[in-house]
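Follow-up to my post from last week.
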Amino acid sequence: MSEAVKEPSMLLQKEMIAKNYDAITSKHQSGRKVSSTFVPGNLNELLASFGILNNLPEINAIQNGMRKLSGDYILEAEKSGHSEDVCTYVKADIGMMGKGNIAPNGKPFPDPDVLLLSYTGCYTFMKWFELLREEYKCPTLMLHVPYEGDGHSTKNMRDYIVSQLKEVIIPGLEQVSGVKFDIDRLREALRNSAKAEDDLVWVLEQGKRTPSPIDAYFGGVYYIGPIFTAFRGTPEAIAYYQALRKEVQARIDAGVGPVTPDGSNFSDQKYRLVVEGPPNWTSFRDFWKMFYDEGAVVVASSYTKVGGMYDLGFRHDPDHPLESLADYCLGCYTNRNLPTRVDILTKYVEDYQADGLLINSIKSCNSFSAGQLMIMKEVERRTSKPGAFIETDLVDPRYFSAANVKNRLESYFQMIEQKRRGAARAA
Amino acid sequence: MNAIVDTATAPTSTAEIIAHCQALFDDLNFTAARAWKNAVPGRKVVGFLPVYAPLELIHAAGCLPLGLFGGGDRMEVIHGDAYYQSYICRIPRSTVELGVTGRLDFVDGMIFPFVCDVIRNLSGMWKIMFPNVWSKFFDTPQNFDPEIGGRYYAAELQELREGLQALTGRTISDDDIRRSIALYNDNRRLVRAVYDFRARTPWKAPTSEVYLLMRAGLMMEVEEHNRLLSAYLAAAEAEDRPKRDNVRIAVYGSFCEQPPLNLIKSVEMAGCYVVEDDYALVNRFLTEDVPVEGDPIAALARAYIETSVETSCKYVPREEDKGKFHIEQVKKARAEGVIYATPSFCDPALLDRPMICRRLTEAGIPHIAFKYAENSGQMQPIREQAGTFADSLKLWS
Ligand code: SF4
Ligand code: SF4
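User reply:
Got it. Predicted complex:
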């Protein structure tokens, strides 16, 4: 397959991520400390205020999935006693360690100085870091974020998170970094975050246009890259989102759709979809092609909300730094209860004038997947738009059946056509 | 209060007691709980799922706490499968089946305690499916500092109390809770006594019996269960049963979706005395008495923070403590080996398995692992595996 064509913002992002990997792998030269932490509910601004670098194991697993390395890593982990049933991100990570722990820049990952277990929206995180802790024997700081089981957060939840930040996380990070906590540095970072968040939301909301100048799933995973990883709160992230915004604006002005990996502008958009669930990474490009080949653009997705639901109005707030970190953690997509997820997806289908909801159900991920069939039925019922269900995995190539996925997508598009014809006849 | 078992004619032999428990266990229409509810107007039943819920609060609200542990292998799941993909464990689909087939239509409230993301998401599904049933996701703390996690948890308990008050329309006083705590302390003591008795003389208290005794206890009033436990202890002690040349083993990993009863029996038939397990943990989740003096909510919170068991739904703050609980229990029960038996697709048990098993290896405790589903039918492979394990333990002991 030819080299994928990338939008300028994608190239910029690639550079940023590479720069972060270089900073991580050169920690022994720079003397900087490195944390491992998760994407949902990550405390990037706080870590940065201590000068601590941020390494995200899910992002490493994604990188290894896209580079077709994850299959071997997963087998390696299964050989050493990890069950075939559990999340493949964990096994890709553990397998990578077993095979030399090499970062995408080809250099060995240094051991982390701290595991910051931001426990938001997914049970597996807790065990993942218990497993890593056995290997690294480094301090592990647990931030427990309660689940919004009744569909909203409470004062008690927020107070609990803030007191953990004050009593556990901040003192722990002070100890690891040797740097005293400076709330003004944190405020500054949060101010930066909010600016980037404004621009990200603007970009994601352009999916409401016809044609859509963005793909909110396949393109979306690039758009969220900097803010979901090590850059939220930095001036680089502000610059990135300004550049991205300009790029999208230029497409709006030209009346064209997003650029596909084949290099064409995807403007002939026959189907507008909302997608729920993470993508498959091992066949990412083939998967994407199945959509644009059929004229399907994704106008909104839930995956682009796992690291924060900015489109629902949340912004990091420099005037209430710790409380705002707590609210951020509580509000990430997978920390919302099922009825709320149904509400959100229904609203997306309506607001983005989509033809329906497509669920990519991930074998690995109970956090997303358990209950998705009901989500589909409910959203179908409430929007009167057809839904569809495909099943893949994140980084385990054994669970990506291209023929199957393609068949299902084709039938789905036929179903949408039928529905349209029915509606036209009725009109 | 109305008892499910009439104590005047209460069974006194182990066979009678267990037959009674088996009947309750087998009855997926929950006839006894329905009868309890119908006996007095206004009574409410509150269902709860694994692993731990503060039953004292449900009891203090005057409600019957009803343990719901899936459908086992006796129920055909027809609708439930349409709600879940093939790679998700069985218990949520059989619980949904119980709901959509009307078997839980008398249940007024449902508590979904934190154990993993599957039950967490099921709590939201319940809200959509049964909007008229009060349902609560009950999150327990993963921070075990009394001033942080303890304080948060006390407020969560208070919220649960208020939810139950709204459900029942009656105030739950501190004294109500204290009375319930005292009864559940009795229950914990009796439960421990039964398990200790089993560990001492496993041939007199087979696990297939003890299991039924405990499961049935989660479907009746605690007062009644206390009487039943005492009766069982007395009867089991008095009865003479042949002692076999079995090995002593512990079973871990079965804290949520339960193995079919046949599996429990198969392990015994393969030559193992199960002297320690984590089946349906709720009645031993707190390992000590909860103080009945002072603020009862604070007492329940503190008990959770300080004296609850180590199991997969809890974070272990210090690496060196991981698996310690299991090893101590194994030693206390003088088990010679461990069977790590987990439901298929169970993240908590399967993610923990390598860590716990590594600790067992370090402690020189032999172990094997297998997976099951609550509706597993074929027992032959399990019997063979457990039998081979028992033989190897005998060989090396
Ligand atoms: S279970 Fe899902 S949310 Fe959790 S680590 Fe795996 S992929 Fe991420
Ligand atoms: S059996 Fe395991 S995965 Fe399934 S609900 Fe229970 S704890 Fe969760």
